[in-house]
What we know:
The complex is a heterodimer. By secondary structure, chain A is mostly beta strands. Helix content of chain A is 0%, strand content 53%. Chain A is built from no helices and 11 strands. In chain B, the strands form 3 sheets. In chain B, strands 2, 5, 6, 10, 11 and 12 form a 6-stranded mixed β-sheet that branches. Chain B has a 4-stranded antiparallel β-sheet with strand order 3-9-8-7, with no helix packed on it. Chain B is globular. Chains A and B meet through strand 5 and strand 10 of A and strand 5, strand 6, strand 10 and strand 11 of B.
Amino acid sequence: DGGITQSPKYLFRKEGQNVTLSCEQNLNHDAMYWYRQDPGQGLRLIYYSQIVNDFQKGDIAEGYSVSREKKESFPLTVTSAQKNPTAFYLCASSMSAGELFFGEGSRLTVL
Amino acid sequence: GDSVTQMEGPVTLSEEAFLTINCTYTATGYPSLFWYVQYPGEGLQLLLKATKADDKGSNKGFEATYRKETTSFHLEKGSVQVSDSAVYFCALILNQAGTALIFGKGTTLSVSS
């Protein structure tokens, strides 16, 4: 089946550790996105990529990094520089502007 | 800057009641407008969209009309069901290359039988 796969679904991290969230899509979409969701704050854009080997910072990129070496993959690394990383992270892809297909999300908890 | 404002929730309704969730926007250009829905524990799904003024988007009994004069895109449904309980997000995107969706904060809808 075509879609977006995020892993892991749940992740626990100790303070000071980097963690990487995986996002894979087999929809042949050019654009991919990472959003962070916090209660009462909606979705905030972390990074997005319109094409392989290129990506742009969103509104809250500090403390995060990404790569886009393959069209299908857009991993997000949450670094130790991110002050408040506990959140629900959503990956999405799109072929046409605004019509996003989302994964089921990854919930990161810092212990 | 460009932004989306939604009515705060939660919205609590009985089954078969009429639903309205208000959404207004601020944009420098002429955006396309969207409603997304998030069911518990899941990612978001596109519910409906409108790309220009006076367009009406509709899906699964939900409707929203793009009103340029009031910069609004209110979501409506004539008769809600328990299965409509979810979080609803209004969003916009500018019709320019290289831009990304801007979301509102979401409105939680709870429907009881």
